[in-house]
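Weekly puzzle thread! Below is a chain. First person to post its structure in token form gets bragging rights.
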Amino acid sequence: MKLLRYIALLLFLIPLSGFSQGSGNNGNEYDLKALFIFNFIKYVDWTQTNGTGNFKIVILGQSEINESLQKIAEQKKVNNRKVEIKSSEDLDEINGQVLFIPRNMSDHLPECIDKFSGKGMLIVTEGKNLASKGSSINFVMLDNKMKFEINQTAVRNSGLKVSSQLLDLAIVVK
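Winning reply:
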């Protein structure tokens, strides 16, 4: 457990000067975000979600993160469950444990919060101030480093709990 925390801490300290928005280095940015998402999953209490079938990560619309998530999903399982990566633009078709909302779909956040509140879905975003607008976890760039914000109220409203270890590494937003 200490090793995982150490690795996670190192990931959070990696300088990402080439990862600014529009830098043209999005592949590496999304590889890192995909790793973060898989690490987030380890620190969330999923007891409310059904423990059978595939663990589903859904991307709202199209995003470069899809390929990065697919690569990791081919090698990793979550609680002995195969990980399935899907994309959908139709909120009625979305069913899973994690919903990633890319920058270009950020305006759909309020709809997603309304639709998935209390249903055990972790909503992860990557836009300015989205944690304060109700996202569970939001990627941000600070001092050329990728960091993440956690909105504890949004996580609770989703019916989930995050470990204190993850909160220690996050920027906590109310």
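Puzzle host: Confirmed. Bonus trivia for everyone else. Residues 2-173 form a domain with the Rossmann fold fold (CATH 3.40.50).
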